[in-house]
Amino acid sequence: MCRHIAALGPARPLGGVLVEPEYGLYRQAWAPRRQRHGTVNADGFGVGWYADGDPRPARYRRAGPIWADQSFGDLARVVRSEAVLAAVRDATVAGADDEAAAAPFTADRWLFSHNGVVTGWPGTAVDLAATLPAAELLALEARCDSALVWALLLHRLREGEPLGQALADTVLQVGAAAPGSRLNLLVTDGERIAATAWGEDLWYLKDRPELHVAMASEPYDDDPAWREVPDLTLLIADRNDVLLTPLKEPLA
Questions:
Q1: What's the burial of 160, exposed, middle or buried (CB within 10 Å: 0-12/13-18/19+)?
Q2: For the chain, what are the domain ranges?
Q3: Given Cys at both, which of 30, 138, 190, 244 links 50, Cβ 3.0 to 4.6 Å?
Q4: pTM attached to this predicted model
């Protein structure tokens, strides 16, 4: 499916996280090393970041492959941030949503990405969608499984659920409604990153001079400090600590 990454650290150009590493997200668009589903991530891409003093993230997305966008190179070279979330997309099914279906999705102070698939889409989405108010359904950015998962999570966050609980509850809800779904989710508010490993690979890296913590579909270099996350796990990280908590798999 997709490849994505979120990172916190000292301010640095976006390209330092996404382009410069030997096996960074830019290269993962056409040559991922650990992708088990799909081969090329050319159905869109996006990057979100936080500017100093502004809690709401900025975002740049396009419908085509990242390597074909000549503007992205300039943006990645000059835009600096302490927090970034980015993704390259391999679409679950063909659709007409173009860049609206490309992560990161955003609302309020949040950035969100989904690597995986909701099985049986769109048939399995009916019961899930019924749990949302009509106004939130009408506000969906795209008609894809990732956009619905984001809407379910955002609803919980706006209802006041803590980040980790909201993420875990969303994965368990979707997993119960659509067994066999792959639900690796990434979300950040610029100060923390939360993620789930649910049917797809997930890795994290912490405490390098240029980086506090990163969570990614696959390592962007061969540093042995990368740690693979066990399946069915919730991660919560800030600039100091990473906490791993097992998730309870719902009965099929």
A1: exposed
A2: 3-246
A3: 190
A4: 0.95
